[in-house]
Amino acid sequence: MITRSMLTLASVLLSLCLAGGAAADGPERVPPVKDPVVLKECGGCHMAFQPAFLPAASWRAMMKGLSGHFGEDASLPPDKVKQIEAYLVRGAGRDTTDGAPLRITELRWWKREHDASEVPPDRWKDPKVASKANCPACHLAADQGNYEEEGERHEGERKKHHEEDGDDD
Ligand code: HEC
Ligand code: HEC
User: Fold this and answer.
1) How many independent structural domains does the chain possess?
2) What range does the domain containing 23 cover?
3) Interval 88-146: pLDDT, tens
4) Closest residue (by CA) to atom 23 of ligand 2?
5) Which residues lie with the beta carbon below 6 Å from any ligand 2 atom?
6) How far apart are CA 83 and CA 101, in angstroms?
7) Cβ atoms of residues 6 and 158 within 8 Å
8) Residue 21 phi/psi, 5° resolution?
9) Fewer CB within 10 A of the end CB, N or C, for the chain?
10) Count of alpha carbons within 13 Å of 54, Cβ hemisphere only?
11) Distance from the CA of 95 to the center of ligand 1, in angstroms?
């Protein structure tokens, strides 16, 4: 009984959220990275970004250019490149009208979700944030694929559980 009413409330909350446009294209939850090789090789310099945030073409392009990866040399032996690329492509998000960007932070929905109305410009200058790509600075559960709320405003356990049941991609 509790479950049923909780689910009802959760779907109301969810549809409000969808109607509000916030979740229209920015996923609140994405499957976390579980592959130990990806976690190790793509999680050393920054959080291992979840594959669902970029389309397959982006991951393919990125894995071809690891020696010049945003100004860093992130090269890997060919067998690892192949293995990681397969993982990223398997979990990739839908194609976007943005083409095959290499940055999540350049996707249109990302920019909209993080415009000045959502994130006060000063926030980006906080040394704890330092970069737009530093997702876990604000989304404390980012490494678990949870972006539904910013850390300090976290609430809505019900919503969270509902979304675990219904993977809506
Ligand atoms: C040697 C360090 C290093 C390694 C290893 C590394 N990266 Fe990066 N990556 C960077 C840097 C530096 C940036 C730019 C970060 C910034 O703008 O703050 C970046 C940015 C990114 C971005 C774009 C983030 C955004 O702005 O949306 C993605 C996606 C990404 N890396 C994926 C990967 C993947 C996949 C791997 C594993 C194959 C990987 N990285 C391994 C250093 C690294
Ligand atoms: C400076 C803090 C900050 C950083 C860094 C940041 N975000 Fe956000 N993010 C926010 C805020 C604020 C919102 C809008 C309010 C909300 O929904 O929590 C948001 C919203 C989102 C949403 C939409 C969530 C929803 O409820 O629909 C996603 C997805 C997201 N961010 C992903 C990312 C990713 C991926 C990164 C790193 C590449 C990132 N964010 C970096 C603060 C940040």
Assistant:
1) 1
2) 2-165
3) 999 999 988 878 999 999 999 999 999 999 999 999 999 999 999 999 999 999 999 99
4) 26
5) 22-23, 26-28, 53, 104-105, 113-114, 118-119, 123-124, 129, 132-135, 137-139, 147-150
6) 21
7) yes
8) 90, -15
9) N
10) 24
11) 20
